[in-house]
């Protein structure tokens, strides 16, 4: 069996128990699924097969192979310059969200297209809808302010006929809005997910990139590691500013979604996030810790539904008629 030394097993064991990527990458299986990956797989300094994770083209090819081998996605592409997501971490978010829904459904994960998920900032890669639909059969709506990113995501979906009826992409025409203009009149969602812009400025994003290259033992570079457009990587006010706006706007559609959620990378942002949730008078807040190697992040989830409203939602949306 072919093995990969990056990331090493002790790091990947921290992933969710249902995550398909907890073990080492099986490059024999991946190359069988996507023969084009073969030219990027070489022994690392320890003599173990891997790819160069500093090579954007190699990482894109690895993602194509992972999506094809594990999620039955036959076609996936990424326009130049856009963010190339690490699939194991993206899958982890979704598995923890399945657990969140299960906690509200008597321990059973709601599956199938009756479960509707809104992905805020789905990007050009469309990664969360692809994995979430494959793993749980959920129906997704993805939104983004970038028309080119939406066009790319639509192209991915259109060339995978199995998922085409189950994933819809929408452009957010007003860059000051997150939910208005995306959640349509009378529309409801069981879950919203978001991986918000991490940085507050281009300068801050470039500093983060230099640190990543140092961790890869490379020369410092100013190019954004693994790509990323402005709206993907930074936002005025940074992560806290984006999440604050999201919480405030979620109150406008309070009863139209069961769980609103977002990744929170910076622990120091949590006190402000909790205070904002308190101001908006949410009914319940949950914080779910996620550990991915040496990186620790978390998901903050909130709902405006009372226990009685949650029970009614469960009966109307998830339970068999």
UniProtKB/TrEMBL annotation:
Tree of life domain: Bacteria
One Pfam family hit: Methyltransf_10
Entries under HAMAP family matching the protein: 23SrRNA_methyltr_F (MF_01848)
PANTHER family assigned: RNA N6-ADENOSINE-METHYLTRANSFERASE METTL16, SAM-DEPENDENT METHYLTRANSFERASE
Top enzyme class: transferase
UniProt keyword list: Cytoplasm, Methyltransferase, rRNA processing, S-adenosyl-L-methionine, Transferase
Protein name per the record: Ribosomal RNA large subunit methyltransferase F
The EC number(s) this enzyme carries: 2.1.1.181
Reactions the enzyme catalyzes: adenosine(1618) in 23S rRNA + S-adenosyl-L-methionine = N(6)-methyladenosine(1618) in 23S rRNA + S-adenosyl-L-homocysteine + H(+)
Protein family (similarity comment): Belongs to the methyltransferase superfamily. METTL16/RlmF family.
Places the protein is found: Cytoplasm
Function as written in the Swiss-Prot or TrEMBL entry: Specifically methylates the adenine in position 1618 of 23S rRNA.
SUPFAM superfamilies: S-adenosyl-L-methionine-dependent methyltransferases (SSF53335)
Predominant subcellular localization, coarse grouping: cytoplasm
């Amino acid at each position: 069996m072919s093995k990969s030394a990056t990331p090493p097993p002790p790091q990947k064991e921290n992933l969710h128990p249902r995550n398909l990527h907890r073990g080492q990458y099986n490059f024999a299986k991946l190359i069988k699924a996507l023969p084009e990956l073969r030219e990027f797989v070489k022994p690392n300094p320890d003599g173990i097969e891997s790819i160069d994770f500093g090579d954007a083209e190699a990482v894109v090819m690895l993602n194509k192979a992972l999506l094809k081998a594990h999620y039955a996605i036959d076609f996936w592409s990424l326009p130049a310059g856009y963010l190339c997501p690490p699939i194991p971490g993206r899958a982890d978010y979704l598995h923890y969200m399945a657990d969140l829904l299960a906690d509200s459904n008597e321990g059973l994960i709601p599956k199938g297209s009756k479960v509707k998920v809104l992905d805020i900032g789905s990007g050009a890669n469309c990664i969360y809808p692809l994995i979430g639909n494959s793993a749980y059969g959920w129906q997704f709506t993805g939104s983004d302010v970038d028309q080119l990113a939406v066009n790319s995501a639509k192209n991915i979906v259109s060339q995978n006929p199995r998922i085409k009826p189950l994933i819809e992409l929408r452009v957010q025409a007003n860059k000051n809005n997150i939910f208005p203009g995306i959640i349509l009149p009378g529309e409801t969602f069981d879950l919203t997910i978001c991986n918000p812009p991490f940085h507050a400025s281009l300068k801050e994003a470039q500093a983060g990139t230099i640190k990543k290259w140092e961790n890869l033992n490379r020369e410092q570079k100013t190019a954004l590691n693994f790509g990323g457009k402005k709206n993907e990587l930074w936002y005025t006010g940074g992560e806290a500013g984006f999440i604050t706006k999201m919480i405030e706007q979620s109150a406008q559609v309070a009863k139209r979604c069961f769980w609103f959620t977002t990744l929170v990378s910076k622990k120091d942002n949590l006190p402000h996030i909790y205070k904002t949730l308190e101001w908006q008078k949410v009914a319940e807040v949950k914080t779910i810790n996620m550990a991915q190697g040496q990186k620790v992040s978390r998901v903050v989830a909130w709902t405006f539904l009372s226990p009685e409203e949650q029970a009614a939602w469960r009966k109307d949306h998830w339970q068999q008629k």
